[in-house]
Amino acid sequence: MPTLVAFETLTELYQNLVQKYENSLKTAFAFKPAPDADYKTVTWSTVRDDVNALASYLIDFGIEKDDRVAILSENRYEWAIVDLAIQMVGAINVSLYTTLPPKQCEFILKDSEAKLFFVSTGIQLKKAVEVFDNCPDLKHVVAFDEPKVQKYMENDFVSLFDTVCVDGVKSEPKNSETIKKRALEAEPENVATLIYTSGTTGNPKGAMLTHRNIVSNVKSAHEAISIGETDRCLSFLPLCHSFERTGGYYAMMAGGAEIYYAESVDTVAKNMLEVHPTIVISVPRLFEKIYNLVMSNVKEGSAIQQSIFEWALDIGKRYWQGERGLISMQKKIADKLVFDKLKQRTGGNIRFFVSGGAALPADIGTFFMSAGLNILEGYGLTETSPVMCCNRYGEEEMGTVGKVINGVTVGIQRLEDSKIIAQLSGEDYPSDLTSEEGEILNRGPNTMKGYWKNEEATNEMIDKEGWLHTGDVGKFENGRLKITDRIKHMIVNAGGKNIYPGPIEDMFKTSPWIDQLVVVGEKRSYMAALIVPDFEAIEKYAKQNDIKYSGIEELLQNEAVQNLYNKEIRSFSKELASHEKLRDFRLIPNEFTVETGELTPTLKVKRRIIEKKYGHLIEDIFEGDQA
């Protein structure tokens, strides 16, 4: 489906949308002004006025073309206004995760040489105040919210967002021509944003994404997926990540879709019921939680209810896979008895979900497809703006990330001899192509310009032929890309066998007793796992079996609980090769989270951090292993 307006830069996208809707009450964005309030909608005319005011302030402040302006904020309307104003004056958006500690914020601010820093809440303002004196290029901080701790506002380098916008309105008449001139000067090859990787080791690197990088990706996404003016997207993944930036922001704007901001990641379930979105972009963690909740409820139902659910799931799967006739009639009954309730929990209007950022377990994807809730899984990296491949609506193939998007070429490079053994372009599709496994490469207009002030890291990732090396392992299966795992995640056991933990971990995500699982066993004679239980499920189990305990740690050491997990591990391991089977485990009494450092902001596991933090448990597992 083509984009709503023509554009070659992000600046042009915004300007053409404003022009299209200048005499319209069309909603652009919506947000909650307070937790108990209704959603407040914002028209494109209001967006134009707010962006012009802030752009005028940026001009007055002295922001020049290619200057860096940083944002430390959750997803909210102000984030979009700052971003669009930055594009209008030709500056570069530097976005930071709100979960970053002050020291990492300081590194990014210093590395990017940001002059101006926009922050959201008092918590984020505190970080800005703490690092301000250590950032020589940083001149001022603007806070979206008035902080509860008033001493932060006593600093002469801090202003409130509302105040600077009022100043911008006053100066807009004298700056309007300058803003127009700057906007016209935007070129596709200009850097639009620096997105710093959230790597698990070392300092983060700033990926330079140009207007061409992102615009080409947005256009290719529209060719693969239908996004239109009647769509409504619920935005909750971090906008500082390229997946949400391109997919849940620019691509939605390009189709004229409405963007509603969730109050937080924790309120997504509630906000879906309020917003009634047609499109939701998420990482697999959301789908895993919904799946486990549904399966837990089914397990607690009567034998008849469980039988009806299994029947409905079978009918839904057969219908999704193309069976019709009697199945069509049965599908209507299955919807009424089972699936309509699940659809209502997602707001009732979902056309499709988009999953990315990590691998979606095939069984969970199949469950949603069988329920009539389509999931389009895609794949890419921050450095590829980000999409390289995606499943098209009606062509979903669970366990794969779909076909290569138009304009992009994906190659498979054999690990043993670095030979490129297969490649596919979006315009060229031999549907029967199946390849050997190797490293996944990318080449095309979506490839980043490089890493900011880091030529060495750029050359390590992009070779002389222009291939960007993803570090991921995969292969083509019937013309679709299938991801195996990260090269650096590969475990080599004591016998020299290469084991990719990702697929093993994905398999266990369908267990009603397991919330998170990390495979361990480097240089050991067998594989084992660190397991975060589903605490709600295990506490229900304890109550039903009259198990007494004073705390969660005591419960996890209970013999009956240990036997329960031992049985679960053995049951799932039957599907694994001998060298992949999990022979032992340890239960972790707390969830892996972003805040405690075990997950990245996009909810990927930081293996090295977990292995270090729980090294004593790993040593306990393998005590006596003579490998």
Automatic annotation (TrEMBL):
Family annotation (PROSITE patterns): AMP_BINDING
GO MF, one example: long-chain fatty acid-CoA ligase activity
InterPro entries noted in UniProt: AMP-bd_C_sf, AMP-binding_CS, AMP-dep_synth/lig_dom, ANL_N_sf
Domain spans labelled AMP-dependent synthetase/ligase: 28-452
Cellular component annotations (GO), alphabetically ordered: membrane
CDD domains found in the cross-reference section: VL_LC_FACS_like (cd05907)
Pfam families: AMP-binding, AMP-binding_C_3
Key words of the record: ATP-binding, Ligase, Nucleotide-binding
Domain of life per record: Bacteria
Catalysed reactions, semicolon-separated: a long-chain fatty acid + ATP + CoA = a long-chain fatty acyl-CoA + AMP + diphosphate
The protein's name: Long-chain fatty acid--CoA ligase
